[in-house]
Here is the input.
Amino acid sequence: MEHTETLTRYIANFVDELVKSGLTEAVISPGSRSTPLAMTIRAHPKLKQWVIIDERSAAFFALGMAKKIKRPVALVCTSGTAAANYFPALVEANYSRVPLVVLTADRPHELRDVGAPQAIEQIKLYGDYVKWFNEMALPEANDVMLDYVRSKAARAVHMAMEGNSGPVHLNFPLREPLIPDFTIVNLWGEKKAQHFHPTIDGVKRLHPSQLKTLISKLQRNEKGVIVCGPQYRDDLPEALTNLAAALQLPVLADPLSGMRAGEHNKDHVIEGYDAFFRDVTIRTQLKPDYIIRFGAMPVSKPYLFYVKEHKNVPQFIVEEHAGYREPAGNKTEFVYADAKLLCEDLTRSAAEVNAKSTWLEMWQRINSIAKKHLLAQSEAQLLTEGDAVRCMLDCLPEKSSLYVGNSMAIRDVDTFFMTTSKDMTVLANRGANGIDGMVSSGLGAAAGGSHITLLLGDLSFFHDLNGLLAAKHYKLNLTILLINNNGGGIFSFLPQANDKEDHFEALFGTPIDIEFQHAVQMYGGDYYQANSQPELQHAFETSYKKGGLSVIEVKTDREQNMQWHRAKWQAIEHELLNGEED
Here is the structure.
């Protein structure tokens, strides 16, 4: 069998097995060495392809899509620094447990380490940031090697989803000529419906004796706290709500927990804890007997203070498969079990655990006071950042998704996202918490089939402007609320702000003084600037009705924003500690 047919059958069988294993989407960045992979993926009738020129943008695009569709997405690039540009997104995917199948083309072995162009060391390029790495064999097309290549494809998809999801990496050494021949007979191999490695994946559930032991550790305590951090299971909020009701406990719900929106009962949900935990006296008054946390560590830094100050309080962290997400460094008991099933098992045994309704009522009263101040309308003429976020949350349509940038954006959502019966999903890149790749991530989520609203700041927008090309190319529906405070607004809240005379603006404030309207129009988007809440509301309504790419810019002042937030926190603290408003 001559080279071209061998290459074609080898790659075609691999791609076909990806599809049989459930993969439906592939993001391709153009290049020469990856020609066999790119062309074969594009030729497969059941694979949808997205061509994103810049590999860094492509990787974040795939990340956002995988978050939205909750299935693996393939990434394909050529050799050399193209593969290195995937790194930031793969770091994020690893920490946020997002399944990606990374396929990098490479020079064959005889062209490595000899000065050949576009050849770097790609063996285990991503280190421990991928769950599994495999250096693929050079293409052969006998029966043994076609089974081999299908086995690797099936394993790649399985490994990306198995346990805690994450990225996997397969490296393909390929010799020239690189153009496949799609006219060969039986291109995709044997027409079998079942894929090469079918799996039966059971769930992890505590044994009755283990459950009894856990309950014994809770039953003598009345003042427990349930915490739900970032997690993306749709079936957990209702199960966790039922558990909270049975135990008469508050649920501290992170904005990425899925607990703040939806039809489940939210009487026990406490969403204002980031605001009232800022006072050490209040944190002391709310000392619990135990804490049970589901999901990752919450966004809120005051919650971290709360946990650290109560380091001797028994803490239980529920992990579905494996993990060690406990940045406070406290003595902690990890419970490895399916979260929904654990909630159901504990709910059935709730009668054995003491409950104290006054404990829950205290949390609900404090939360109500915090919400009253957080939702109070601003007297300022211009929009504040908090006003803009609250307006955005009100305007979000039913069955929509919000993608939130890091830094101040996620913190404002944490502060102002109150419980609602609205059916909505909130996504964010909270694995490594970087501000890079956010535009591409939002567009990747939009490629998942729905209109996405993306909230981010001006520095994050600037970092990923070239990501907007995907919106123009594929006519994706993305509305961006751009909060422009001309720099790094979050640093105004940090100790670095005390050095405003010498270093602050150059190193932390970093104003960029860009008129973003020109960039938006360059990529074919609609631009709006909103200076009042009615203008902002109208811009959102117009954007959702029209579709496509829209950027709504709200310009704010960093110093005024910091003072406005602190005034809110001080008002909450004053009423909680003194029993009255100013």
